[in-house]
Amino acid sequence: MAVDLKNLNHTQLTDLISKAQARQSELHKEKVGKLREKVLALIKAEGYAFEDIFGGGVRGAGVKRRGTGTVAPKYRNPADPEQTWSGRGKRPRWFNDALKAGKKEKDLAI
Questions:
Q1: How confident is the model at residue 58 (pLDDT cuts 50, 70, 90)?
Q2: What local confidence, expressed as pLDDT, does residue 65 receive?
């Protein structure tokens, strides 16, 4: 299909470009879908499940996410022992107030 671009006005050319980009996107999605089917068929033919090869999600091969568990407290407020701080993140007000009052970090350590 040969299109004479010199005979197209600006609107026609813009329309042609957008249709070509849409078609290109469709072709890309079709190709990815076919490749996905081939990979899944190969995994199944070898007797494995997708999760066996790539883990529980679709994050990628061997990529694990670190857990965001809790950290043991490192500092305790002497005025209120229920207030603690792990030493990570922004300092709590009670910690800053204690430092301004002349305490040292080691005085607040658990």
A1: low
A2: 65
Rounded to whole angstroms, how far apart are CA atoms 30 and 38? Answer: 12
The secondary structure of the chain, three-state, reads CCCCHHHCCHHHHHHHHHHHHHHHHHHHHHHHHHHHHHHHHHHHHCCCCHHHHHCCCCCCCCCCCCCCCCCCCCEECCCCCCCEECCCCCCCHHHHHHHHCCCCHHHHEC
Contact 33, 40 (CB under 8 A): no
Domain residue ranges in the chain: 8-54, 75-108
User: What pLDDT is recorded for position 24?
Assistant: 97
Count Cβ atoms below 10 Å from residue 85 Cβ, excluding itself: 19
Mean per-residue pLDDT for 23-38?
96
CB neighbours of residue 97 within 10 Å: 13
